[in-house]
Design brief:
The complex is a heterodimer of chains A (357) and B (293). Chain A is α+β, with helices and mostly antiparallel strands and 357 residues long. Helices cover 24% and strands 34% of the residues of chain A. In chain A, α2 packs across α3 and α2 runs parallel beside α4. Chain A is elongated and about 75 Å long. In chain A, 41% of the residues are buried. Chain B has a two-stranded antiparallel ribbon. In chain B, α3 packs antiparallel against α9 and α11 packs antiparallel against α12. The chains are: A alpha+beta (357), B mainly alpha (293). Chains A and B meet through β6 and α2 of A and α8 and α9 of B. Bound molecules: adenosine-5'-diphosphate and magnesium ion (MG).
């Protein structure tokens, strides 16, 4: 158990700049989820914390101690990999005991710790098996067991659920969350799956092209995304992003498509008339109703209790809506935008614009 | 992955197999059959009379103290060649597997010795260790260490072991490197995070995972040392000085081709043949069982 601090971590592989300066403060026992599209540098960041890669510049501190020049073996962290990375020639017991043996723990203590962890994970009956005799879910449990018995300062997870089928993924996700709470070990969890991120993290780090676009709690990120990337990444289906311009006086936006006027419920935005904006509206905030957006619905996906509508605005901008009920049809319709659920972003930088800002 | 093609009739498949069968027949089964046939016969030195003697040739061979000496020498020779060739190949493969600059050049260079003919390999070693013209041979003598493998049997043995092992290192290297590269990187990283330092990672993870490869290579190397080193020994020492480097395969040649004792020579070949068959069977049995993943 420990705190973790990242200070301006940068990483280049030759001429390829992968991380452009990431700062992060993790408190003791916190579960941080690093989420972002594939290739944005999540694994690289995690591997720098583990000591498997060396940062080009910046500093990693675990429990306030600089990790500069320290080997993975000397950092007292445990990692769970996407492909399990179990030792194929060892039994489950030996896999879990490996790190403890190296630390020179007495035999009876090793036995005790392995039994306890195996009990927690429900793999007690598998201890004598070899990894090749286990299913994917069982292997990942063993990999987690191997991390737990070590009682490390830090858990690192690199997409541990990505190789599992959907049902198992949901099951193990809940289990990881329970275990992490119960053991209270500071954790970094990497995933590209935003649902996983929302459900697991105390706080999320949304990464975009080697930068932390936003670091906040899941609800904060959902309610007040810092930029259009975060807005589009978190939430499913993705937030609709519509081009617009600022009205003189800053009290409303005029949509480019159809010229609809959208007054800001929370106060005016700064800037000259005609300032380029992007208006964000979550699909679930749209409602059927008169006087709203003219949409040409092209596809209806009924999900039982609700339906997802895919359509286009007059100028061809795609639009998605998630509406209650199942009675929708293709064709022209009108959707209302509740003004209190709008997000306003700068048209050029994509950054969020707050009322008065 | 099995692809099966169904042929109509039996003619075409046999026709397609014919070249392979022909080659195997002419160059393997025929001489092997000849050897077995000859091993039961005794012929006088001029080839005028032949008599059937049953297993007498075999009994003579295994009762002959000089043959037993030769067998012991062969064990020492083959064991040393295998250990040396496997050990150095493993060491080199581990080095080549690291991400070092010029790794590709290094790998290519290491594979070259395999393409060198035994006689040329022998000449190479001769140029290095000949007491009068060899670079190292002269250096050793200059340092006051008496070095002449033409007179000293132990030195001669050392020479043929080194030259034979050197030729086999490339082959082992390729297999070890492939074996190393098939170990998932994450497994080694997991071990590093678990606290294992490089030496420990090698002995507890890498080495056990390579052991099927190592066992396969051990058998291949033993077979190589038994049979394929004739050229090296012949070019370097002619089995001498005395009988110091006369291995079993070299003795087959001396007894058969030089001394024209065809019956005994054939019996010796048959014994060696049985040995290879035994080694191969062990290998297939073991390798099939002992593969991870
Ligand atoms: N060892 C490496 N050498 C060169 N480029 C690398 C290396 N590791 C990762 N990269 C590059 O860094 C970028 C980020 O990789 P990674 O951290 O694995 O992304 P993520 O885990 O978010 O999918 C990718 O473009 C990848 O190609
Ligand atoms: Mg990754």
């Amino acid at each position: 158990m420990a705190t973790l601090t990242l200070r301006d971590i940068k990483k280049s592989f030759g001429a390829t700049h992968v991380l452009h300066g990431v700062d992060l403060d993790v408190t003791d026992g916190e579960m941080i989820v690093i989420v972002g599209a594939s290739g944005c540098g999540k694994s690289t960041l995690l591997r720098i914390v583990a000591g498997l890669e060396t940062e080009t510049s910046g500093e990693v501190l675990i429990a306030g101690q600089s990790m500069k020049g320290l080997e993975p073996a000397d950092r007292d962290v445990a990692m769970v990999f996407q492909n399990y990375a179990l030792y194929p020639h060892m039994s489950v017991f030996q896999n879990m005991a490996y790190g403890l043996k190296i630390r020179g723990l007495p035999k009876d203590q090793i036995q005790h710790r392995v039994d306890e962890a195996a009990g927690l994970l429900g793999i007690g009956h598998l201890l004598q098996r070899k990894p090749r005799e286990l299913s994917g879910g069982q292997r990942q449990r063993v990999a987690m067991g191997r991390a737990i018995v070590r009682e490390p300062k830090l858990f690192l997870f690199d997409e541990p659920l990505s190789n599992l089928d959907a049902k198992l993924r949901v099951e193990l996700r809940a289990e990881i969350r329970r275990l992490q709470r119960r053991l209270g070990v500071t954790s970094l969890f990497v995933t590209h799956d935003q649902v996983e991120a929302m459900t697991l993290g105390d706080r999320l780090v949304v990464m975009n092209a080697g930068r932390a676009a936003q670091i906040a709690t899941p609800m904060e990120i959902w309610e007040r995304p810092a930029d259009t990337y975060v807005a589009g990444f978190i939430g499913s289906p993705s937030m609709n992003l519509l081009h617009a311009t600022l009205e003189a006086g800053g009290a409303a936006a005029i949509l480019d498509a159809g010229g609809l006027r959208l007054p800001f419920a929370d106060g005016p935005r700064a800037g000259a008339a005609g300032r380029k904006l992007i208006i964000g509206i979550r699909p679930e905030h749209l409602r059927p109703g008169q006087g709203g957006l003219d949409v040409m619905v092209e596809l209806v996906e009924p999900l039982g209790g609700e339906s997802v509508l895919h359509g286009k605005l007059a100028d061809g901008t795609p639009l998605t809506a998630r509406l209650p009920g199942a009675r929708y049809e293709d064709g022209a319709t009108q959707l209302a935008l509740p003004t209190e659920s709008l997000h306003v972003f700068d048209g050029e930088t994509g950054k969020r614009i707050e009322a008065g800002g | 992955m099995q692809k099966k093609v169904i042929f109509k009739g039996a003619v075409l498949p046999y026709l397609l197999l014919a070249p392979q069968l022909l080659i195997t027949g002419i160059f393997f089964f025929w001489p092997a059959g000849q050897a077995i046939y000859q091993s039961f016969l005794r012929e006088d030195a001029f080839g005028l009379s032949v008599e059937f003697v049953g297993f007498e040739n075999f009994l003579d061979v295994v009762r002959d103290q000089t043959w037993l000496d030769s067998a012991g020498r062969t064990l020492l020779f083959s064991g040393s060649v295998a250990v040396l060739a496997l050990g150095s190949a493993l060491f080199l493969a581990v080095q080549a597997d690291k991400h070092i600059r010029g790794a590709d050049v290094y790998k290519t260079l290491l594979i070259w010795p395999y393409a060198v003919a035994p006689a040329i390999a022998a000449v190479l070693w001769l140029f290095m260790f000949h007491p009068n013209i060899g670079l190292f041979g002269r250096m050793l003598n200059g340092l006051g260490i008496p070095w002449d493998y033409r007179l000293n049997g132990n030195q001669a043995m050392l020479m043929v072991i080194m030259a034979s092992a050197w030729k086999q290192v490339s082959y082992n290297f390729i297999f070890f490197l492939a074996g190393l590269q098939s170990i998932p990187r994450a497994v080694l990283e997991a071990a590093a995070i678990d606290g294992a330092k490089p030496a420990r990672r090698f002995w507890t993870i890498i080495f056990p995972l390579l052991s099927p490869t190592a066992f396969f290579l051990l058998v291949v190397n033993l077979v190589y040392a038994f049979f394929d080193t004739f050229g090296v020994i012949h070019s370097l020492t002619h089995g001498g000085p005395g009988k110091a480097t006369e291995t079993l395969i070299y003795r087959v040649y001396t007894d058969g081709v030089i001394n024209l004792n065809l019956g005994s020579s054939s019996a010796q070949s048959v014994i060696l043949m049985l040995l290879v068959v035994a080694l191969t069977v062990i290998q297939f049995r073991y390798v099939e069982r002992k593969v991870h993943y």
